[in-house]
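Input record (Table S2, row 138):
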Amino acid sequence: MIKYNLTCECKCTFDSWFANSQEFERLRRNNLITCIECSSNKIKKSIMAPSVSNLKKASNDDSKFKKNIKKKVLEYQKFIKQNCKYVGENFAQEARSIHYNNKKSEGIYGKATAEEINELHEEGIETTTVPWYHKSEN
Ligand SMILES: [Zn+2]
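Output record (zinc ion complex):
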């Protein structure tokens, strides 16, 4: 959005918002911009006051936010690594074994496909999916 300060032939001035400068030109050419005082369409653009609503700041906040998420995930990963047994691709199998053999619930973590997770869920085995950062990803 862009704000233009407009001046009419009657010397009245007013502000109006437009999608962009082309849009302003289009409306002006088609006499669609009229004075709020005298309804004349002999309008001139005086001062251009574009709005730049802190785009830079917003993107900084966003990356900071992402960084925070990553930090939390990494902390969680560390906790899991310290407290759970890594079972790799055998995750679904191991989870079933714990569930059906009433093994003392030992925390495990590993890889599973979405399909396997669904099957486990249908069997009443609760799993938690966490985003996982690998060292190669920065
Ligand atoms: Zn006017």
